[in-house]
Specification:
single chain; 81 residues; mainly alpha; two-stranded antiparallel sheet; 5 helices
């Protein structure tokens, strides 16, 4: 397995936080975080992993503490290939 495939975004947890912050729609999160909505859509669909810049913007906008950020954006990929 390639190193970059060992981690995935915990989309369920990320969407829970979005709901808590009343930013359930991608367009709302995009406006609040200044992250392109197409990129957010791909991240939330599991198509791409976010860049460091995107992670930092989402952390700030959604007020995710650093210790929780790691478990959301670097969740262990357990599926065997």
């Amino acid at each position: 397995m390639i190193q970059s495939q060992r981690y995935k975004v915990d989309i369920v947890e990320l969407k829970k936080i979005m709901a808590e912050k009343k930013l359930e729609k991608i367009i709302d999160l995009s406006s609040a975080s200044t992250v392109d909505r197409n990129i957010l859509s791909k991240v939330l669909n599991g198509d791409v992993k976010p860049s460091t810049t995107v992670i930092e913007k989402l952390m700030a906008t959604l007020q995710i503490p650093p210790e929780r950020t790691g478990s959301i954006f670097f969740s262990t990929y357990l599926r065997k290939t």
